[in-house]
Design brief:
Order of helices and strands: HEHHEEEEEEHEEEHEE
Low-confidence stretches: none
Strand order of the largest sheet: 6-5-4-7-8-9-10-11-12
Largest sheet: 9 strands, mixed
Distance between the termini: 144 Å
Amino acid sequence: MSRKNHQAVRTKELHANKQAKQRFLLRVTYLILILSLVSWGWSMLRNPSFFPLKQVEIRGQYKNTNPQEIKAILQPYLNIGLLRLNTTAIQQQLEELPWVQTAEISRDWPNKLIISLTQKVPLAHWHKKALITADGSVFFPPVATIPNNLPYLETPSLLIPQGIIILEQMNHSLARLNLQINKLIFTERQAVTLVLQSTTLQTPPISFKLLLGHNDIQERFNRFTDVFPKVFENRLNQVQYVDMRYTNGMAVKWKTEK
């Protein structure tokens, strides 16, 4: 009886070992299958033919940006599948172009890339080859794309924010007098000189200097705008400069009469 029991136990052990080996082999088979699927999937993702990039649509404002510059940035990415495309890198490269303010990149499945651009809006010239935006950003666009109808801001870089405030506030007040700032000179001592220009239909426009100095600039400017209609409006073509650097008055240099 003992021998029969021993054989029965031995049979059960062999059967259990066989089942364990089968389970182990099954798990190994599943693992190999999963790894094969992952490897296949990864190779497919790396394959440019999987969601290939076939179309690029550019939206927004980019009239001052050369399309060839955009094309040169996109060229290295054209052979990469849309899924693997590094949109962050494309965005950063586009935003390094002089006129581009922002670039947004989105995928339009299965094979289209959409690029939305916004363009910088210049407020004034700064030095000879640079432009300034209203937020004080300085950029250096191609000379051929620089507009001619902007005022000039001549000031040290550290004083650009203050110069912008003066430019915008004074231009707003001058508009009602049919005048605008052609040039604002803002020195290190924070002295202000304006070159003003008429906005009426004279060709060429009439221009003259307005000297405000570095003290009480706003008060002096307000005095000038107050007296302008009575003193200068009808004699504008005779004015060479107006010097407001006096406590209660001004000095006027008239052009030599022919």
